[in-house]
Amino acid sequence: MTQAIAATHVGELLRGWRQRRHLSQLDLASRAGVSTRHLSYVETGRSQPTSAMILRLCRHLDVPLREQNRMLLAGGFAPAHPEHQLSDPPMAEANAALEAILQAHLPYPALVVDRHWELVAANDAAFALLDGIDADLLEPPVNVIRLSVHPRGLAPRIANLDEWRGALAARLRREYDVTADPALGELADEVAGDLDIVPASAALVVPLQLRAGDAVLSFISTTTVFGTPREVTLSELAIEAFYPADEATRKALNGV
User: Which residues does the UniProt record annotate as the domain HTH cro/C1-type (predicted)?
Assistant: First the structure.
């Protein structure tokens, strides 16, 4: 990792993010309050930016915290944003918040995923939907995207599989555009596969329709993230909460 970072100077990384955000040098310079000439010198390596300048430009480019640290390392500076394991003591309050949200969402399914959609935690309702899936597919790390489209995972139970796959692929591509994380681009291509374009339905959102015996449970989902994270791991976590999309699903989950 250190060798890869050293091979790319900070200016090249900044230019890549500026182009990804579809900004001209003039656009970014104006937003960041620097001269266009200075920004040009930084991007070409003729001028070495300070750590404060790197962070200022990153802020205006909406660069993820992990990539901000990478740019600081490329510029010869220490990372500005800490990174911990969720089990580390400084993360205790964040863990408690995640657990509280998962439990409060019962009897509806909810789960926590990381930046690559690997399962971090889930409530009992979410695990109940996985009942009967091959045990080897549930061995950590579990990628919930792959699990949902795997022929031995949830795929045979999803009544609108092509529509769901198309929605997942589109979302992953949007996340790749925002983060530049190649793993997300690869995952999007994997999910899309040779899927034809699925005609849009009249529904306001794409539901997840799961077969459960003779019934079909229909869910819509929301995504929750930490609002003002300063830590890398927290900035990359998301809570996926599922809600009934129809009255039949609501009654089934509430035991009515």
Answer: 14-68
Q: What is this structure's pTM?
A: 0.89
pLDDT, position 4: 43
**Which overall architecture, per CATH, does domain 89-253 show?**
2-Layer Sandwich (3.30)
* 14/167 Cα distance (integer angstroms): 31
What's the pLDDT tens digit per position in 116-149? 999 999 999 999 999 889 889 999 999 999 999 9
Listed as own residue / partner, the contacts of 49-58 with beta carbons closer than 8 Å and 24 or more positions apart are 49/10, 49/11, 49/75, 51/75, 51/77, 51/80, 54/10, 54/14, 55/80, 56/32, 57/14, 57/28, 57/32, 58/17
CA angle 201, 215, 157 (to 5 degrees): 70
Amino acid at 27: D
User: Under CATH, which number does the domain 2-74 receive?
Assistant: 1.10.260.40
Return the C-alpha torsion angle 7, 8, 10, 15, nearest 10.
Answer: 170
